[in-house]
């Protein structure tokens, strides 16, 4: 679960995390984890395929300055609600960034899931069980995080290993 399509990535290509540096970082990690068949994706029709995973976003359009507003989150919430409802057998959600973490918690809460009070705080490696699902937090693979080493390939590999391990047991 990501933030939103980037203006020069997913918004341009038609697939989230495709054609931009955030996607390059994420696809490489998904490839190392055995989830993606290729380590990069430049176009929506380039043959990239995922096994046992789906990419979604909290907001459906590229927000100005890559910073969605609360209004945009709430406007797009029905789309995310439907997506999570359709994916009702999914047991592990890897949430990329605090904005998406908050959006997912709000939707699960509105759906009647047992979201703990106070709401679980986001952090890299944060983990919470909500009903039949486990949410795992990771810093978003934006250049702001990867260039500063706030998120390294090893850090993303670690949370992906945790997510895939939990999914294998589900």
Number of helices: 6
Give the overall shape: globular
Q: Count the strands?
A: 3
* Amino-to-carboxy terminus distance: 19 Å
What percentage of the residues does DSSP assign to strands (E)?
Answer: 5-15%
Class computed from helices, strands and strand pairing = mainly alpha
Just give the CATH class.
Alpha Beta
What is the CATH architecture descriptor?
3-Layer(aba) Sandwich
State the strand order across the main sheet.
1-3-2
Please state the average pLDDT score.
Answer: 88
Question: How many structural domains does the protein architecture include?
Answer: 1
Reading the helices and strands in chain order gives HHHEHEEHH
CATH topology: Uracil-DNA Glycosylase, subunit E
Structure description:
- The protein has one domain: Uracil-DNA glycosylase-like domain (Uracil-DNA Glycosylase, subunit E), CATH 3.40.470.10.
- The protein is 39% helix and 9% strand.
- It has helices at 10-13, 21-32, 70-86, 98-110, 143-146, 153-169; strands spanning 92-96, 127-130, 133-138.
- A hairpin with a 2-residue loop joins strand 2 (127-130) and strand 3 (133-138).
- Helix 2 packs across helix 6 and helix 3 (70-86) packs across helix 4 (98-110).
- The longest helix has 17 residues, at 70-86.
Give a short summary of the structure.
With 170 residues, this protein is mainly alpha-helical. Helix content is 39%, strand content 9%. The chain has a single domain (10-169), classed as Uracil-DNA glycosylase-like domain (Uracil-DNA Glycosylase, subunit E), CATH 3.40.470.10.
């Amino acid at each position: 679960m990501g933030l939103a399509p980037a203006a020069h990535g997913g918004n341009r290509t038609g697939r989230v995390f495709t054609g931009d540096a955030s996607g390059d970082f994420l696809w490489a990690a998904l490839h190392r984890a055995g989830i993606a068949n290729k380590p990069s994706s430049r176009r929506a029709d380039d043959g990239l395929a995922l096994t046992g995973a789906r990419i979604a976003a909290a907001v459906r359009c590229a927000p100005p300055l890559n910073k969605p507003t609360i209004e945009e989150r709430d406007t797009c919430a029905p789309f995310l609600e439907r997506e999570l409802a359709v994916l009702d057998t999914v047991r592990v959600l890897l949430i990329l960034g605090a904005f998406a973490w908050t959006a997912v918690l709000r939707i699960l809460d509105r759906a009647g899931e047992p979201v703990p009070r106070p709401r679980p705080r986001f952090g890299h490696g944060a983990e919470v069980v909500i009903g039949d699902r486990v949410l795992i937090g990771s810093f978003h693979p934006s250049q702001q995080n990867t260039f500063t080493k706030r998120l390294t390939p090893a850090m993303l590999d670690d949370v992906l290993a945790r997510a895939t391990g939990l999914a294998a047991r589900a």
